[in-house]
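Example S7 (structure tokens).
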């Protein structure tokens, strides 16, 4: 009850929440900032999930059900990926210039999945985001919530093998 009256604390210390908070503040922390806030959230994280939506609801003082309604109504928004693990590749300008497309290609070669897809065994979902706000570290990938900057295809492959528990 009154979920939207909860404290407006971001779900974690992740710096990306500052980008979303700034977007909401710029629009007066009011209901009309909702779609913009969801865009900014998706761009920064690659997908939306319950803790984040709860934070946005509290910040904009609107019921969580309405925030969910908007998040699920528009095809543009993606809710938390179904895979056990999530790898979000930033495809913003800085990361793109530094090789984001190669990272996506190497993931496809190794795991057979493209952005927006989950491996058939449900272990890994691949997503893209537009900017994590860490352009100085480009190219940037977030694996299970860990931001990894200046990543190479080799390091990314190793990292994915590790989270997926593949030998080698
Ligand atoms: S463009 Fe990738 S972190 Fe900004």
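Recovered sequence:
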């Amino acid at each position: 009850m009154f979920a939207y009256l909860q404290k407006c604390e971001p779900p974690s210390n992740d710096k990306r929440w500052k980008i979303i908070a700034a977007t909401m503040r710029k629009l007066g922390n009011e209901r009309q900032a909702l779609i913009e806030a969801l865009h900014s959230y998706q761009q920064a994280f690659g997908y939306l999930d319950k803790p984040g939506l709860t934070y946005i609801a509290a910040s904009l003082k609107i019921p969580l059900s309405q925030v969910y309604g908007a998040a699920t109504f528009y095809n543009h928004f993606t809710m938390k990926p179904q895979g056990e693990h999530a790898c979000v590749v930033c495809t913003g300008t800085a990361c793109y210039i530094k090789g984001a497309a190669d990272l996506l290609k190497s993931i496809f070669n190794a795991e057979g999945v493209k952005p927006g897809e989950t491996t058939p065994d449900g272990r890994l979902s691949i997503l893209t985001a537009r900017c994590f706000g860490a352009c100085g570290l480009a190219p940037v990938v977030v694996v299970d919530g860990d931001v990894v900057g200046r990543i190479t295809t080799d390091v990314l492959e190793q990292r994915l093998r590790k989270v997926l528990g593949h030998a080698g």
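Notes on this example. The CA atoms of residues 140 and 149 lie 4 Å apart.
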